[in-house]
Specification:
- The structure holds three protein chains of three kinds.
- By secondary structure, chain A is mostly helical.
- Chain A has 14 helices and no strands.
- The radius of gyration of chain A is 24 Å and the shape is globular.
- Chain B is an alpha/beta fold.
- Chain B is 47% helix and 13% strand.
- In chain B, the strands form four sheets. In chain B, strands 1, 2, 3, 4, 7 and 13 form a six-stranded mixed beta sheet that branches.
- In chain B, helix 9 packs across helix 10, helix 9 packs across helix 17 and helix 17 packs antiparallel against helix 18.
- The longest helix of chain B has 30 residues.
- Classes of the chains: A mainly alpha, B alpha/beta, C mainly alpha.
- The interface between B and C is medium-sized, with 33 and 30 residues.
Chain lengths: 295, 438, 310
């Protein structure tokens, strides 16, 4: 059933389908897509709006059920209170190191491996790929303790290194990038091979620049995972000075009783970097347009 | 294109540098030392305590640890937050698997029978027997039962609670019914719950946690005991709850459900907020909710639970558990726990936090009145510990038993089964669990 | 070791085995995958092997364990609760995967255009993804609360009677589907968005110049070109759906009346509430084999139906 486009694609000129306003739609004051996107966006924003509201309420308003959606007064003080309740600054730095290191590791190691799986025919390729993929199929709870024991053997318990190492490369990233690399026009690579460019050169000079949207996506996802990771940091980190943000936030959450206004203020603050990363990386979604002429 | 290559490389280098530097820190204290941050040198011993305290309790514990470290120059206690949800168990299990558990850990009472199977666990009988001044019998009976597995004492009570009846005086006045008393019976309780119910105003007489967890189950045990029933048969080999007492207890739940008199909490503890907003007349709850009830400005009262045959309640104590990381550290851990749970320090702790005292003799201390006055109603719970005469079976099989009962209670609350059928099915399951090896 | 020293003839015609190996794609391939393979082997494959041993033990993760052979697996075949957990997991997966993939595709296409406020819309779709599962759980428990929830309030306005949602054994699993679609949609959307950037504009133009409508252009060009991404999303969503846990843990805890007890929640219960670590590992292995089979099947179908450039 697969339709093989007859057109050969020597270069990429991705252009958005709707870039040119269609004359039929000119009568509407706005694009009809808003009618779909606006309600969807509203539904998607519910949690953020709710968290922001709670983060501005008094302790008592925040625990009322049903929730009070219109705070009678605004309490920005919750933000400074949350910031000061636990060593937030330190947690931020730790989370940033954890997230950036795992993003960098995944971009590098997954790119290398994914390129090999996509383009190089080597002995054992298919089996190895399935073996790597299989590591995604076991619930983390089951491999938690042995992973801890290995990190312990490496002497990395209660260190940022121990936090980072097991997450430097995932089969998820390899699989995702492999799928993207395989959609790239192979002609460019073949031409470069004839010119004597090495495999590594092709990867870095041709494949990766063409894959910025995919790399940006992997980067965002990995950043988000590390930033929101809770269980692994809980297991591997003992002391406050190495704890990332989510571990810190859990210290605002009591067994029986939680100050929701403080917790939500902390949660909103913790989400800002992720949203910033997303906005930043979003440029790369579109950015590939700029890389039209690859030489 | 150069930049592209350099960026991830730079970041990885940075990351590895971070690994390296923190790794070397870690190996000095982590892998060579007997436990995370601990050791014994030149007569000075450092021990690690894992706890999950937050907010007031976290601040209070920090204060007490500082006080201990100051007054005990030969011991340094390092306190570490290890989470306070069920996830904390996984951290403890990983540490046990690694052979380096903390010297002391706060552990839920329900974990005790399983934790007791660990060879590295410190049995405390020798310390308690050798030190009459410790006075083990000063701890409440329910606490001692949960801290004892077989004849091994595996922990020192860390926190104790129990269920009492909290009511909204305003709603009682509106409904025109007299306030609950310490002599209340089930029928008075039931009649009041029905009268307090008003679906049009989204008002409920009572609340019940309906997530089939232990939170659902222990409330049922209190009722079962009040009706004169028992969880297991006297020899502990068979289910005992499928008795007339059990049916009576579930029938009470069934009737109140049919009157829509129970706010069914989904396990998120929203019952408290609903109560605090004046939508629930009565709660069966513990001292942990008190601080928020006070803040909500609800005109509340506290009394013991109503009686069928008696006014028994249930208590769910948690333990401080010690792991053996060498004799010196074991001794230091004991010294700390003895100090921490001594009557004077315990009074200091409960006054800071509003928790209940773990020792009976705390009530005889001069400062006790101040504590009771600081948290109006807490005295009822403290005295109510004497009504917590029974405990759940100390068995590794208890979590499975609890799950079976949770399903039974939930099926009645949801109107899916009659009390008799629900208990029949549960008792078959429990008999199977008890008969299974292990 | 090398052939030429023995024969002495035609030495320079044939490069040495080593040289051929170095120049060959086999070595290049392995060099490229080596860092990833080492990392994943140490931190995933070894632990997975360890859990295989665990599944052959009676192990409460606290006391020294002993070997019991296949006893855990034999017990699983007679475990009615496990069977019903499989049922819930299958129902969940069969609904979740198509709904979320189709929804994400539609949304991604809508988001892949230059209209005013598009960045805002994309950010909005991303928001549920970065929201912690705990917060998501709290929000949904409130929205779906039978007495005080917003959803019942809205239903009441249009005359629909009060629903029990997460507290109704017949509805809870479907509420979980809705909740997880909502919170994971953004994930699939950003992958589709990235894939859509790879579709050459002139291709679409050519198609439309040929007089093909938007819908047929979408079907005949966009959809096939999204094949690799779709395969990835389907495989990944299925792997995740079959391992659903967090969202159950923060909302229903498997209830009411075990109606949302999925396999991994049951595993968690066995390992960390009942302290049957060995049994939990056996559950994990049965699940592992099942996921592996499903994934291989999907990849096999994908191989025949997905178009790649190479």
């Amino acid at each position: 059933m697969s339709v093989q486009p007859a057109v050969s694609v020597p270069e990429r000129f991705p252009r958005l389908p709707d870039a040119q306003p269609s004359p039929r739609r000119a009568r509407l004051p706005f694009s009809a897509w808003h009618l779909l996107l606006a309600p969807v966006a509203a539904i998607m924003l519910v949690p953020l709006v709710w968290m922001v509201i709670v983060s501005l309420e008094t302790r008592q308003q925040a625990t009322s059920f049903p929730p009070q959606l219109i705070p009678s007064s605004i309490h920005l003080g919750n933000y400074s209170a949350a910031w000061n309740a636990v060593p937030f600054g330190q947690f931020f730095v730790n989370s940033l190191i954890y997230s950036l290191a795992t993003v960098a590791g995944n971009l590098l190691f997954c790119s290398l491996a994914a390129y090999a799986f996509a383009r190089i025919r080597f002995f054992g390729r298919e089996v190895l790929f399935v073996v790597l993929l299989a590591t995604l199929m076991v619930p983390f709870q089951v491999i938690l303790i042995p992973t801890f024991l290995i990190v312990k053997k490496l002497g990395l318990v209660d260190t940022l290194g121990g936090l980072i190492m097991p997450n430097l490369c995932s089969a998820f990233g390899i699989f995702m990038l492999r799928q993207f690399f395989r959609t790239l026009p192979i002609e460019l690579e073949e031409a470069a091979r004839i010119d004597g460019t090495s495999r590594l050169g092709i990867l870095f000079k041709i494949v990766l620049p063409l894959s910025l949207p995919a790399l940006a996506t992997l980067g965002i996802i990995q950043f988000m995972w590390s930033w929101n990771d809770f269980l692994w940091p809980l297991i591997i980190i003992d002391s406050q000075k190495h704890a990332p943000l989510q571990l810190g936030l859990s210290q605002l959450q009591g067994a029986h009783f939680t100050q929701w206004n403080l917790l939500m203020a902390g949660t909103v603050m913790s989400q800002i970097p992720m949203l910033a990363v997303f906005l930043l990386a979003q440029r790369w979604f579109i950015r590939s347009v700029a890389f039209t002429g690859i030489k | 294109m150069k930049r592209l290559i350099l960026l991830p490389l730079l970041a990885v280098t940075l990351a590895l540098a971070a690994c390296g530097s923190s790794g070397s820190n870690g190996s000095s204290s982590g892998s060579s030392g007997p436990a995370p941050a601990g050791g014994s040198k030149n007569g000075h011993t450092t021990i690690t305590v894992w706890q999950g305290d937050t907010e007031t309790e976290a601040a209070g514990f920090k204060k007490l640890v500082a006080e201990f470290n100051q007054t005990h120059p030969n011991i340094t206690v390092v306190s570490q937050f290890y989470g306070n949800s069920d996830y904390a168990l996984q951290k403890v299990l990983a540490a046990i698997a690694g052979g380096k558990p903390p010297d002391i850990s706060y552990l839920y009472g329900s974990w005790a029978p399983n934790i007791a199977t660990n060879p590295q666990l410190a049995t405390l009988n020798k310390f308690i027997d050798a030190d009459p001044s410790f006075d083990w019998n000063d701890f409440f009976p329910a606490e001692r039962k949960v801290a004892t597995v077989g004849n091994k004492i595996i922990g020192i009570p860390a926190l104790v609670d129990n269920l009492a009846l909290v009511y909204n005086k305003t709603l009682f006045k509106q409904a025109g019914i007299p306030l609950p008393t310490a002599n209340w019976t089930w029928s008075q309780f039931e009649a009041a719950a029905i009268k307090l119910t008003n679906p049009a105003k989204k008002q409920f007489g009572w609340a019940y946690v309906n997530d089939a967890s232990e939170d659902t189950v222990w409330r049922f045990w209190a009722m079962l005991w009040q009706a004169g029933g028992s969880i297991l048969s006297p020899d502990g080999k068979q289910a005992g709850f499928d008795s007339s007492a059990g049916i009576k207890a579930l029938t009470l739940l069934q009737q109140l459900t049919q009157h829509h008199a129970i706010y069914l909490d989904d396990g998120s503890d929203n019952y408290l907020s609903v109560f605090n907003n004046g939508h629930i007349g009565m709660l069966w709850t513990g001292p942990w909710d008190l601080a928020q009830i006070v803040q909500s400005k609800v005109d509340y009262g506290v009394t013991i639970l109503p009686a069928d045959e008696n006014h028994q309640t249930i208590s769910g104590p948690d333990n401080w558990v010690m792991f053996n990381n060498g004799a010196a550290r074991e001794q230091a851990a004991w010294t700390f726990l003895k100090w921490l749970t001594s009557p004077a320090i315990d009074l200091q702790w409960v006054t800071l936090t509003g928790d209940l005292p773990v020792r009976a003799s705390v009530a005889k201390l001069p400062g006790y009145k101040k504590y009771v006055a600081k948290y109006p109603g807490v005295g009822v719970w403290a005295a109510n510990l004497n009504n917590a005469t029974q405990a759940r079976p100390q068995s590794t099989k208890y979590p499975k038993i609890s799950t079976a009962i949770g399903q039974a209670v939930q099926s009645v609350l949801l109107g899916k089964a009659s009390p008799k059928d629900a208990l029949n099915q549960a008792s078959q399951q429990v008999n199977g669990i008890l008969a299974a090896p292990g | 070791m090398s052939a030429h020293s023995a024969t002495g003839i035609a030495v320079h015609r044939r490069p040495s085995l080593l040289k051929r190996l170095v120049a060959s794609d086999h070595l290049a391939g392995w060099v490229f995958v080596a860092p990833a393979v080492i990392l994943i082997a140490v931190f995933a494959i070894i632990p997975i092997g360890w859990s295989l041993l665990l599944s052959l033990q009676a192990n409460n993760l606290i006391a020294p364990a002993h070997y019991v052979g296949l006893a855990n697996y034999r017990a699983l075949t007679k475990d009615a609760a496990f069977r019903s957990a499989i049922g819930h997991t299958v129902v969940y997966t069969v609904i979740f995967v198509p709904v979320s993939v189709a929804g994400a595709l539609a949304l991604a296409v809508a988001l892949n255009r230059k209209i005013r406020g598009i960045r805002f819309y994309r950010l909005a779709v991303f928001v549920p993804l970065v929201t912690s599962t705990v917060a998501t759980g709290i929000i949904f428990l409130w929205l779906l609360d039978p007495t005080f929830g917003l959803v019942n309030y809205v239903l009441h306005l249009v005359g629909i009677p009060q629903q029990q949602f997460l507290q109704d054994p017949n509805q809870a699993l479907y509420c979980i589907v809705a909740m997880t679609v909502w919170s994971w949609l953004g994930f699939d959307v950003i992958i589709y968005l990235a894939a859509l950037q790879g579709i050459p504009g002139d291709l679409l133009e050519a198609s439309e110049m040929d007089g093909a409508g938007k819908w047929s252009t979408f079907r005949s060009i966009v959809l096939p070109l999204l094949g690799p991404a779709t395969l990835f999303i389907v495989v990944w969503s299925t792997i995740n759906a079959l391992q659903l846990f967090d969202e159950i843990y923060v909302t229903t805890r498997g209830g009411p009346l075990e109606s949302t007890t999925v396999i991994v929640y049951y595993l968690y219960q066995q390992a960390f509430q009942f302290f049957n670590g060995g049994y939990g590992a056996a559950i994990a292995y049965v699940l592992f084999v099942a996921i592996l089979i499903v994934t291989l099947l999907q990849l096999w179908v994908g191989r025949r139906r997905v178009y790649y450039t190479s």
